[in-house]
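cron nightly-structures :: item 1 of 1
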Amino acid sequence: MKLLRKFIDKIADRITGIVDNSFSLEEKQKWIKQKKKLELSKKVEVFQQEFRRQIYTFISSALGFVAALFWRDALVDMLKEFIPSTEKWFPKLLVAIAISVLAVIGILLINEILMKKYRNGRV
């Protein structure tokens, strides 16, 4: 029973950061190293979370940019209709609409993944 109590006291001291004089110098150094590792792992975790958020933002922006480029081509060709030209603008308009829909779906999927991870505490 005394051993169990001593063990519980050591764990309680570790958790609260209270260092008892009964601990050896090696134990104290070991606990300090563990605390530093824990702090470092928390910093790495925060970095990973922010990195994922930035990647999701980058992908969403890229999808929007691609959709904007297709819209640009479609609108330029539609305006060229008023100026005689041999190119057809209607297929480009359909492609711009399709790319826009796909971009919006992609952005919504990325947002849903991010929100699920955020709710679960992983991002």
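cron nightly-structures :: done
The mean pLDDT is 76.
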